[in-house]
Amino acid sequence: MKSSINIKHISLLLLLSIIFYLPGVITSRDFWVEDEARYAEVTREMIYQGKWLVPHLNGEFYPDKPPIYFWLSALIAIITGTITPFSFMFITFLSALGCIFVNYFFSAELFGEESALISSLVLMSTFLFLFCAQIVRMDMLFTMFMMLAIYSFYKGHKKKKKYYYTFFYVFAALAVLVKGPFGLIFPFLPVVVFLIQKKEFDEVKNFVLHWGFLLFMFILAMWLGTAWFAGYKEFVINLFTKQIAGRAIKSFSHEEPFYFYLLSIPLLLLPWISYLPGALKAHYKDPANQYFWLLLWWFILGFIVISMVSTKLFIYPLPLIPPLTMLIGDFLRKISTADYKTKNHTTFILEGIIALTLTFGIFSLFPFVAPKFPIIKQVNLWALPMILLPLFFCGLIFTMKKNHKRVLITLMIGVWFITFFTFYIIVPQVNYAFSSKKIAQEITYYLKKGYGVATCGVRRGILNFHVKKILPEISRQELETYFDDSPKIVVMRGKEFRKQQKIKNNNLRILNQYNIANLDYFVVSKR
Q1: Residue 355, in any domain of the structure
Q2: Is 64 within the bounds of a domain?
Q3: Which is deepest, 159, 429, 430, 466, by most CB within 10 Å?
Q4: 522 touches 497 (CB < 8 A)
Q5: Is 290 domain-assigned?
Q6: What CA–CA distances, in Å, run from 202 to 207, 215, 266, 493?
Q7: Over the chain (527 residues), what is each successive 10-residue block's mean pLDDT?
Q8: CA separation (Å) from 324 to 425, 435, 464?
Q9: Distance between CA 234 and CA 240 in Å, rounded?
Q10: Given this model, what pLDDT does residue 1 score?
Q11: Could you give the CA distance from residue 476 to residue 457 in angstroms, rounded to a whole number?
Q12: Domain enclosing residue 375, as ranges
């Protein structure tokens, strides 16, 4: 099918994106511990200490992430004159728009404009996508580049124009510069397996040996080579040994069992998960769509890769969501036809009931479970069932009448309310419980009084941004020698402090205690 620019569709998607995501982008909050606070400090050191080539954190190089995301956030901070969550979330918002529009044009070529519109609405309202579009993370930017890479391959393969493969490797290189080697692995594997499945072995050779791969290597070598010869050899070595190989083989953060994503993805795909089995079945039986397998391999191979890697986080499947939403979007178009509803009466009703129940039912229960979570128990959550339950019953009526479009609209309205309530009502009220600003204010007070300040067991750099100062890090063994005649204090993580308390003749005095994101922090001095 031939793609075109449907101004009405594009305008609608742009408007809905602003309505859906703007509350999270402009909401009043601080950088949260721990990732957001680290990213803010990396950007601060990049701007004010000139650490542009290689990201730095607490005065040391930061090999956890490549630089392009921080370059962009620093650029926005320079333009706006300050580093705020908006500096990062504006990038996320633009990346989310990019993902939605790439999804639209890709789907339009595969299934037609009506399916493309629906699939883009499905993508933008899927819980994982909604969440990632309103937080300080580079995953949305990474997903956009990965989608552009696979879309470039599709264009080259479909049109028999190999120059599109060049764009594949350029976008893959940009994805790598955002989040590492997955930027090549995620798009490369499904393309190669898809071609092998089609027995297009000559095309495999054309794709793998395309000169665009040399361009890919050149783009990466420009950065890594410059870093190497600029004196950051240890950074480059650490990047390949600890950050890439280490996270893949033995995680030093976010370690979860291999089945973690089997349990989490169904929840992350709400409210559309109930339509996925029907979508897979419908497209599997349709021999006309040869690119169904490209989309399916996109998800399956990516799922296998992230499941094998020891480091796991519920955000990581984000790049695997678009192929599923494309299939679901076309399926939702099909089930609105009279022929489908006549043949699949029971299935249509069951899918709608499951979608409504899982989405509105789960969130309507939040006021009852909130008391078990101290962080949100003070937030009035009763607006959720008051709005969602009427939507649930309206959706049931539309489902029983087999009115597909109204069910879709009902789910969209409910999901919008959930995200609005979460990011515009809940987030500002719980901001204090996740921000390190309150500890930073006390640290700043002691610094002004001439005290020396260090951290012990605290994740590197998470206090620095608000203090606007690099704080030295010491171990528990160094505590005794750290306190000398000059006045000093130490900020300790709870587990480090409790270990120190067990030591005989412990001479630490607690000045203050904080709880941030359910973790204890102690401000201590010598007795």
Answers
A1: yes
A2: no
A3: 466
A4: yes
A5: no
A6: 9, 21, 38, 58
A7: 74 94 86 90 93 90 87 94 91 96 96 94 95 92 97 95 95 93 93 95 94 94 87 76 55 64 91 93 80 96 90 90 96 76 66 91 86 78 92 92 87 93 89 90 93 91 91 86 84 89 77 90 89
A8: 31, 35, 41
A9: 10
A10: 47
A11: 8
A12: 336-432
What is the Cα–Cα distance from 59 to 301, expressed in whole angstroms? 38
Count the domains in the chain.
Answer: 2
Regarding whether 427 and 343 lie in a shared domain, the answer is: yes
Decide if 168 contacts 212 (C-beta within 8 A): yes
Q: Does residue 303 sit within a domain?
A: no
| Cα→Cα distances 446→439, 449, 454, Å | 11, 5, 11
Q: What are the pLDDT digits (tens) for 269-324?
A: 999 999 999 999 888 877 667 899 999 999 999 999 999 887 788 899 999 999 99
> What tokens does 523 get?
């401000």
CB 447 within 8 A of CB 469: yes
Residue 490 sits in a domain whose CATH number is 3.40.190
Which of 403, 432, 461 is the endpoint of a domain?
432
Does 341 share its domain with 421?
A: yes
| Domain boundary residue, one of 383, 398, 432 | 432
Task: State how far the Cα of 179 lies from the Cα of 393, in Å rounded to an integer.
Answer: 43
Same structural domain, 443 and 474: yes
Cβ-contact 310, 251 below 8 angstroms: yes
- Residues 425, 449, single domain; the answer is no
- DSSP conformation letters of 472-497: PB--GGGHHHH--SS-EEEEEEHHHH
Identify whether 200 is preceded by a cis peptide bond (ω within 30 of 0).
Answer: no
Reading the block at residue 447, the tokens are 């610094």
